[in-house]
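STRUCTURE REQUEST FORM
Protein name: LacI family transcriptional regulator
Source organism: Kribbella jejuensis
Requested output: structure tokens
Priority: standard
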Amino acid sequence: MNLRAPVTLLDVAQRAGVSVATASRVLNGGDRVPRPELQERVKAAADELGYTPNAQAQALAKSSTNVVGILVHDIEDPYFAAIANGVMRAADERNLLVMMASTFRDSDREIAYLSSLRAQRARAAVMIGSRRTDAGSLARTANEVESFLNSGAGLALVSQSGMPAHTVEPDNRSGSADLARELVRLGYRKFAVLGGPETLATARDRRDGFIAGLAEAGLEAIAVETGEFTRDGGYAAAEQLLDRNADVDCLFAVNDVMAVGAMSALRARGVDVPGKLGIAGFDDIATLRDVWPGLTTVRLPLEQMGRRALELAIEGGEPTTETFKAEVVLRESTAILRG
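Status: completed
Returned output:
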């Protein structure tokens, strides 16, 4: 007797050329309805293969809660807090409840939280972080992302490209390159970069974009100091630079909190900003309103990024990537021109 293996949802998804999550939404139901053309493809594939929807799966797909999860690398960081605030405001407008957790940049903790949200039948989740470069952790995270989506929930990531889900990306490279051009235009010529950890692609993209912008003017960074992606990391990196007596006239820190830490280190050493040394950051966090001299930086629409991430997670559908442009903001920390 020739017994044919039962047709699975994966078979239908592969025949239709869509994700398993999309096939599930079409055949098992759910809140996020895919585009009409995708629905037609999935239904046609199911008919061709003789697929019969699983009644239990249909019931589960319709039983998700009104809970949205936010997983953030570090809620104390104003950058992440601003994005999370955008997610929370957008969720509140839709009468959704929010559960939020800090992962402290631990990929295993991030995976565990996402798995927990899946078990609780969360309607959607937004993961906010700085893209990592470790292949092992990326693979483990991608597997859990697939499982989360296959459960019928929606998902979007902020600053974490490369995952099989909706992604909101800041234009880090172009923004830092634009900043380099503006600082050269102001007259600065001898630059140092306060970079973050090599394992964070966000920090590397900003560093590399800035260096590329300098190269257009025939310049190179005199020094690159690595440090933690934090205020204390910026303080320590600036101290290391000062200890080396590097001949520089402007510092670029790859995020604002590092720049604020660097400004504190310079003040402690009696270095006048911007009289002796200019300094610039990246993000334009709200904390800068209380910093003097005002910090030159690259502005990102952080709350808008969070709002859009929540919208994409709720809408579902095939994964897309949306890039948000960055804008250079010149302030007093680079106010004195160099000849």
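Reviewer notes: Residues 78-93 form the longest helix (16 residues). The first strand starts at residue 67 and ends at 72.
Form closed.
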